[in-house]
């Protein structure tokens, strides 16, 4: 692996283990993703959508984005081809400039903005059927693999949409629980059941009932909090993973399309070669093998 140039401060020169902290913003990570995506026959993990500055005060949102980036780099680190790539080494080094950024608004991972519809000019399969029989070209198997990828994409997308509906239902349930707690406290106050409490013998029971209703209302608030913060957080994490799996089909399609493009170019070259061969065969029959025109045509065919 190539050496990584680092600028080490003099204060860090010691015999102890030194830990380095890499600080990179989302545009620089996008730059790395663009560089790795230039590899034509390698599936690159999908890039998470950049965080919104308006939501940086939301701790749950920030943690969710951190986990998305963590999963992205975990997938990158599992491939030696990515780790040893010169652009990845440059990204880790101190030579990485703040001005080296990727294209903005290029995010493909956004759970709440998920759209399963694929535009015709975006990450679609190229359809091509060779007009001739080619050795080693099992087009039926290749087509089945394409159908399988599309089904996987649809499957992951359906799960993500279902999780999105689940999150919305849990948020509605949380609001209902909180509202129910408020209504219980308001409608079961002891003054509605025991009068205004002017009687001395009823005051103690009235206070005990008020205390119990207060606890019940707080319990409803706590249930709403758990449903919102804990349950929805786990659902969002699972939904993000589903979106990552769904979006990982896009670079896989790029690899398949590269194969289709090469097949198209190969078929065109075979057609051109056959055309030259037919021309040479006709000239051989008409003029003989040693005619200058025949020799020139044969040489052109061999080229």
From TrEMBL:
GO terms for molecular function: phosphatidylinositol binding. Residues 1-99 form the PX domain. SUPFAM superfamilies: PX domain. It comes from the Eukaryota. PROSITE patterns: PX. One of its GO terms (cellular component) is endosome. This is PX domain-containing protein. It comes from Syncephalastrum racemosum.
